[in-house]
Design brief:
The protein is of the alpha+beta class and 435 residues long. The chain has helices at residues 2-12, 54-64, 68-75, 88-101, 131-141, 178-181, 191-202, 224-229, 282-289, 314-317, 342-360, 373-384, 413-434; strands at 17-20, 44-47, 77-78, 83-86, 105-108, 121-123, 146-152, 155-157, 167-168, 184-189, 257-263, 270-273, 300-302, 305-311, 323-324, 327-332. Strand 15 (323-324) and strand 16 form a beta hairpin.
Amino acid sequence: MAGSEAAWAAAKAGLTVVIHEMRPKVATFAHQTGKLAEMVCSNSFRSDDSEQNAVGLLHWEMRAAGSLTMEAADTHRLPAGGALAVDREPFSQYVTDKLRALPNVTVVEEEITALPGDGHWIFATGPLTSEALGAAIIAETGTERLAFYDAIAPIVYADSIDMDVAWMQSRYDKGETEEERKAYLNCPMTRDQYEAFIDALMGSDKAPFHEGEEAKYFDGCLPIEVMAERGRETLRHGPMKPVGLTNAHKPDEKAYAVVQLRRDNALGTLYNIVGFQTKMKYGSQTEVFRMIPGLENASFARLGGIHRNTFMNSPTLLDGEMRLKSKPHIRFAGQVTGVEGYVESAAMGLLAGRLAIAELSGKSLPPVPATTAMGALVSHITGGAEAKTFQPMNVNFGLFPPVDGLKGGRRGRKDRYKAYTDRAKADWQGWLGAA
């Protein structure tokens, strides 16, 4: 997505763009096609609330900047309560078609295995940077590549779910339409069922790591069994929390835990199990997940998996305009820079594209305001984070400079977040005007 955003921005500005895409000639564990902007983990861009949520604010900023990702997401949006979820296959097809239709864009299906010595480049290789390119980055930077493991959630065929047990409801009935208020499918568990599920999860067969590999998970995308290992109640206070839901079949019974599934395509034939990323072996997945009430006869369109996710120590390697300090004709963008999430990755591609446009046109841009979601992210990865402990980061209000005079703590949170977003929108529009 980051590469697609960068290419879109540059091409719309009139530059000639060549996109180098190694797929489908060179495959990855997680990708299934050769399309641009393929979604491999979730189909959600998370909250779309631009007044109370940092990622929703990032959506707003990207839309204001003419983002192709947001255009595609809005075109292929699925009901998901207050979240922005998309029909993943037509989403990536839309991005691919839009870019290929531009006369000044060429897509070359080849693997880049070295850092070029000249030209103007943006490397947006994402979490699955190839081994050859990874080795080239190591050779140039003199540092070891950092990696953590990103797990994929399973997808279930809707017609295999027992709707006499499950019911449709978004948490707290969130959403402006009836369809959004019933965007999630819920499977309730009693305490005994939950305890048995945790036992099975803990005792399941896990996919082994290759020799010399060490698991360094991102806390926002932990495998479900790793969460369970942190405490038997962890899941019940995480992806299986029962709050804000009422069992339509048994409204007087309060579930001890609830498993939620979110629609994964426009037809409503596929549902992914929310927060159930896993590194269990396939056989264990089917056994354990069929213990969930309503999924006893579940048929899986895709089982979960695990892959290595590569990112750079960007605070030491990149300058404030996302250029490699040792080779400033090369920019990096997206998840490889240490941002986490579809939206954050695409946003850094959009920004890298705009910075490249300015450089090639001889224009000097002011720094992106750190008060914006876009600026908070780029500031974090290019110097705001502690290099020794640098880890991938989602956008969050903790990255924003405080607003003076506002009350701290949970009680003041609503007013504080609104102040953050109001300030960000004004500052982002000002920066776009200057750009």
